[in-house]
Design goal:
It is a single chain. By secondary structure, this protein is α+β, with helices and mostly antiparallel strands. It has one domain. The chain is built from 6 helices and 3 strands; from the N terminus they run E-H-H-H-H-E-E-H-H. A 3-stranded antiparallel β-sheet has the order 1-3-2. It is elongated, with a radius of gyration of 17 Å. The termini are far apart.
Length: about 160
C-alpha cells in the first residue's frame, strides 16, 4: 500500500519464502522477522541511516539541529526527537507476511512528509524508515539489502529447524 498522510504501512510479503513451512513455523518465522526488522529500524534510525535505502540521512538544518540538541542532547538526523514515531510503529502478522505500520495520526503525517519528495508544500527532507510498496520498483520499495539478508537468514534457520 502506498504511503499517504493517513496510512503509513508496509506489507512485507513472505508468502513464497514461507510456503513450505508448517503453519506454526510460519507464525514463528513471521514473529521473529517482525522483531528483527523492528530492531533494525530502531538501530538504523538511531545511527542516522535509512533502513530502506541503507544510506545516511541528510543533515538537519543548523537551526533545527541546535533546537534538537537542546531537547535531546543530539543534533543528528535520526527520527528520534521524542521517540513518538518509533513508539507508534507496530507490526501485525498477515496470512502471507508481516505488516509494519505507524499507528499515531500525527506521526503518520510526519512519516509521510519524510517519505515523499521535498517540494513547496513538504519541507521535510526525505528520511524513510519504512519502504513504500506503492512504488513500481526501486530501492525505496523494500528494506535495505542488509535487512533483507537478515530476513533471509531467519527464513533459512526456520527451514533448517524444519528438517
Amino acid at each position: 500500500m502506498p504511503i499517504t498522510k493517513t496510512k503509513v504501512n508496509y506489507h512485507l510479503n513472505l508468502e513464497k519464502e514461507l510456503s513450505k513451512l508448517k503453519p506454526n513455523q510460519r507464525t514463528e518465522a513471521k514473529n521473529r522477522i517482525a522483531e528483527y526488522v523492528l530492531t533494525e529500524i530502531e538501530n538504523h534510525t538511531h545511527a542516522g541511516v535509512s533502513p530502506v535505502t541503507g544510506g545516511n540521512y541528510k543533515k538537519l538544518s543548523k537551526d533545527y539541529a541546535a533546537k534538537k540538541k537542546k531537547i535531546v542532547g543530539s543534533g543528528k538526523p535520526d527520527l528520534h526527537l521524542t521517540d513518538a514515531m518509533m513508539n507508534s510503529l507496530k507490526t501485525k502478522n498477515l496470512s502471507n507476511g508481516v505488516e509494519f505500520k505507524i499507528t499515531d495520526a500525527l506521526q503518520k503525517k510526519k512519516m509521510f512528509n519524510h517519505s515523499t519528495v521535498k517540494d513547496s508544500i513538504n519541507t521535510s527532507p526525505k528520511r524513510m524508515a519504512l519502504p513504500d510498496d506503492g512504488q513500481d520498483r526501486g530501492k525505496e520499495k523494500n528494506f535495505s539489502p542488509a535487512i533483507r539478508e537478515g530476513i533471509k537468514s531467519i527464513i533459512k534457520e526456520m527451514y533448517a529447524d524444519n528438517d
